[in-house]
Amino acid sequence: METGRCHEQEQVEVVGKAFVDHYYNLFDNDRSSLASLYQPTSMLTFEGQKIVGTGDISCKLNSLPFGNSKHTISTIDSQPSAYGGGIVVFVSGSLQLPGEEHQLRFSQMFHLIPTQDGSFFVQNDFFRLNYG
Amino acid sequence: METGRCHEQEQVEVVGKAFVDHYYNLFDNDRSSLASLYQPTSMLTFEGQKIVGTGDISCKLNSLPFGNSKHTISTIDSQPSAYGGGIVVFVSGSLQLPGEEHQLRFSQMFHLIPTQDGSFFVQNDFFRLNYG
């Protein structure tokens, strides 16, 4: 791998990890703020249910039937996407819900698109629990 | 959802399912032909290992240390991507390997980009086994 591509890949991984840390920190501690990561074009498929746009996605995430959650991340894989400056992030981990003895395993994927202010928003989001 | 978007979503799901059927049929029955689904820009992250380009991806898939495999698909979620005409497909399922008593659970994600001949190729591919 030549230096330029190597550097690009490092940057992609740094952004992917920073996004994942930020996303699950908000999810577990300030879930209503997740809305700031989506835009009107954003799509979420949550356990097979399709939701489009900041408002409906935020509504879905905030109406999940549990208060406190704790995500533990196992793997983060990131690649540059075909969309200029975009990043695809693939996450696996486990989710501890209040009052539940066992953690739930999950996989989630984000397609991040750069914003004009140098940040990223989530264009595509897929969440699935992994049943053993 | 108005009619146009509803139709687009249906088309995206039809393409996503057709691709998934085709991909795992090739994987299980004619693995060397998977090369036809990738291009020089394609990226695969396989259990955390990053591989770029048709040749290296094909080499990786064909050198996996098992002959016959049988994938059973549990869920297919598809969304249009930000890249014109592209489709993001998120798959979960299980993998039966020869001589193994238990199936392995996996998650895989494909970012499909349209080709000039009206087909699609895989630009981004992530594969992870799900450990329980």
| Beta-strand fraction estimate of chain A | 35-45%
- Range of helix content of chain A: 25-40%
Oligomeric state of shown chains = homodimer
Distance from N terminus to C terminus of chain A (CA atoms, Å) equals 37 Å
H/E element order of chain A:
HEEHEEEE
Our count of helices of chain A gives 2
Mean pLDDT of chain A: 93
CATH architecture of chain A: Roll
Walkthrough of the structure:
2 copies of one chain form a homodimer. With 132 residues, the first copy, chain A, is of the alpha+beta class. The first copy, chain A, has a single domain (3-130), classed as Nuclear Transport Factor 2, Chain: A. The first copy, chain A, is 27% helix and 42% strand. The first copy, chain A, has 2 helices and 6 strands. In chain A, strands 2-1-6-5-4-3 form a 6-stranded mixed β-sheet, with helices on one face. Chain A is globular and about 50 Å long. The interface between A and B is medium-sized, with 32 and 32 residues. Chains A, B: InterPro entries: NTF2, NTF2-like_dom_sf, NTF2_dom, Nuclear_transport_factor_2_euk.
Summary keywords:
homodimer, Nuclear Transport Factor 2, Chain: A, 6 strands
Secondary structure layout plus pairing:
Two copies of one chain form a homodimer.
Chain A: H1 3-29, E1 38-46, E2 49-52, H2 54-62, E3 70-80, E4 87-96, E5 104-114, E6 120-130
Structure in a nutshell:
Two copies of one chain form a homodimer. Chain A is built from two helices and six strands. With about 130 residues, chain A is of the alpha+beta class.
